[in-house]
Input
Amino acid sequence: MQPSPQPSELERDYSMHPAQSSITRRAALTAGAGLLAAPVLAQPVCDLGLPGHVEGPHVWRDYDQDELDAAYNQEFYQPHTEAVNSRLSALSFDLRVRRGYPERVAYGEGADEAMDIYKAPQAGGPVFVFLHGGIWLYLDASLAGFAAEMFLDRGAHFIALDFSPVNELGGDLGRMADQVQRGIAWVARNAATFGGDPSRIFIGGHSSGGHLAGVAMTTDWREFGLPSDAVKGGLLMSGIYDLEPVRLSWRKAYIAFTDAMVDAMSPQRHLDRINAPVVVSHGTLETPEFQRQAQDFANALKAAGKPVQLVVGRDYFHQDMWETLGNPYGPNGRAALALMGL
Output
C-alpha cells in the first residue's frame, strides 16, 4: 500500500486545502509501511511508530499506552533529530559570525527570562518573535538564530525568546506560558527602541514552542496594558493544541498535569479569544498525533470563523519543518513571509 496522496503544493490557502480530520494513527502507520517498501530514492527511509508491536488495552481513542507514548515522542518517527539540531546549531553560529551577534535583552528577573534580538538593517520593520521547541525541557534561543537571516534580508526584526524549562517551574506549563506572554508583551512595548514597528508584531513557534505560541494567541493582551490586537498573526508549527492525550502519555513524568492546567493550556478550547490570523503547519512524516493535532486545530478555527491557513509540508519530518522557517521557499518560511506581508 502506498501513502495517501498529499497536496502537490507546500502552501495553500485554507479554503483551497481543508484540513483532513480523518487521519488516524493506523492510517499513518499503514502509510509508513508503504514508505518502507518504496524504492530508496522515492521516499525517505524511516521506521515509523512501533513495527511489530502487540497491541494492549486502549488508553486514549485507539491507542494503547506504548502507541500513545510513541505518538508523542518524535524519536520514534524521526531517526535524525540530533543531526538536524547539530546542523541548525552550526548554521546559527555561522549567522552570528557573518551578520553579528544579537542584542541580549532581559524581559524579566529570572535567569532564563531574556531574548536574542536580531535587528534588521533599517528601522521601522515588522517583528517576528520565535518560541523554540524541545518538549518543554530542552533547547534555547541560540539554536534559532539560523532563521534570522531570511527575516533580516526582508527588513524584519527577528527575536528568539528564552524561557525556563518546565521541570524548573514545578512542572507547570502555566508558569512557562506566563514567561512567554511577558516576553511578547515586552517586545510590543519596546519595539521602537530597537527599530521595530510596534503595530506589526507577529509570533511563531515550533513543537512545544508551537503549543506556547498557540497559548499566546489566546492571550488577552489588555491584561498586559496593551491593545487586544497587539499580536497581528501567529505561525504555529508542528505544535500541540489540546493537552488531554498528552497528559496520558509519557510526558506526565515531568509535567504536573491538572484538569485546570489542561483546560487553560489547550488553545483549541479557547478559540473565542483568538482575534488575529493563524497559520497552522505540519509535515507528512511527523507522528500521526502531531499531524492530527494540527489538522483538528485548523478545522476548529475554520468552524469558529477564524482566519486560518493550513500548511502541509510533504515528506518533512518534525525537526525538518523547523529548519524550513529559514528558507523563503520552504513551507514555514514562505508562510511566515506571507503572514507578515513580506
Q: What stands out?
A: The domain at 14-21+79-340 is CATH 3.40.50.1820 (Rossmann fold). The chain is about 35% helix and 15% strand.
